[in-house]
Design brief:
Radius of gyration: 12 Å
Structural class: mainly alpha
Keywords: Membrane, Transmembrane, Transmembrane helix
Transmembrane segments: 12-40
Number of helices: 2
Helix content: over 70%
Distance between the termini: 11 Å
Number of strands: 0
Length: 47
């Protein structure tokens, strides 16, 4: 439980940093990262 919560927190931080960086650089969120985030979100909903 602790490991999964830490992983979720880490991914959230990475997502926020990536999102802010995308705003600053006026770029869209990289496809591989956004795709991974969607898969992780679906996995978290199953739990």
């Amino acid at each position: 439980m602790f490991v999964s919560e830490s992983l979720c927190y880490l991914l959230f931080i990475l997502y926020v940093m990536n999102y802010l960086l995308a705003i600053v650089l006026h770029l869209s969120i990289p496809f591989p990262f956004s795709c991974m985030l969607v898969l992780f979100h679906k996995h978290s909903q199953e739990l």
